[in-house]
């Protein structure tokens, strides 16, 4: 499956004094891309939580290549590079047309409501498989 694609339009309130998207806003764009990708697969975060699994960000690396500007139409590409029962690694790109503006790597963990690591069952892991681009599994 190709990467999931989410469209985002840059809004005025997301700009910094240099008329570029503020660096912190890109983290919200990446989060929106992951959330939308999960929703389109039928994975509701609140339902996972009700069943005892919380997917939390444990590490985030963002590489800035070029700025997005007011009014730009962007695409957030989202895919999973590693899918394990407790940890995973998501890779994302933010593009304007063919140009990659931002690259993100997000490590996530599966935890119970108290924050302790909790292994996902094979059935829960299967929900995420359509986003998996590499067969690296725990």
Provide a short characterization of the protein structure.
The chain has 138 residues and is an alpha+beta fold. The protein has three helices and six strands. 22% of the residues lie in helices and 41% in strands.
Description:
By secondary structure, the chain is an alpha+beta fold. The protein contains 3 helices and 6 strands. It has helices at residues 23-40, 45-50, 122-128; strands at 4-9, 54-64, 73-83, 87-96, 99-111, 132-137. Strands 1, 2, 3, 4, 5 and 6 form a 6-stranded mixed sheet that branches. The chain is elongated and about 45 Å long. The protein starts with a strand and ends with a strand. The relative contact order is 0.24.
Topology:
Elements: E1 4-9, H1 23-40, H2 45-50, E2 54-64, E3 73-83, E4 87-96, E5 99-111, H3 122-128, E6 132-137
Parallel strand pairs: 3-6
Antiparallel strand pairs: 1-3, 2-5, 3-4, 4-5
Question: Which percent range fits the helix content?
Answer: 10-25%
Gyration radius from CA atoms, angstroms: 16 Å
Tell me the structural class: alpha+beta
Total number of beta strands: 6
Distance between the termini: 21 Å
What is the molecular shape?
elongated
Q: Give a short account of the largest sheet.
A: 6 strands, mixed
Task: Provide the low-confidence segments as ranges.
Answer: none
Give the overall pLDDT as a whole number: 94
- Secondary-structure element order, N to C: EHHEEEEHE
Helix segment count?
Answer: 3
What portion of the residues fall into strands of 2 or more residues? 35-45%
């Amino acid at each position: 499956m190709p990467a999931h694609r989410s469209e985002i339009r840059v809004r005025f309130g997301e700009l910094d004094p240099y008329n570029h998207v503020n660096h912190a806003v890109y983290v919200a764009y990446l989060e929106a891309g992951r959330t939308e990708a999960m929703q389109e697969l039928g994975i509701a975060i609140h339902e996972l939580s009700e069943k005892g699994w919380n997917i939390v960000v444990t590490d985030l690396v963002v590489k800035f290549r070029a700025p997005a500007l007011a009014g730009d139409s962007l695409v957030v590409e989202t895919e999973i590079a590693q899918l394990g029962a407790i940890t995973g690694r998501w890779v994302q790109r933010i593009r304007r047309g063919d140009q990659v503006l931002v690259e993100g790597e997000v490590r996530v963990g599966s935890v119970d409501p108290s924050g302790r690591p909790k292994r996902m069952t094979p059935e829960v892991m299967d929900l995420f498989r359509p986003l998996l681009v590499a067969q690296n599994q725990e």
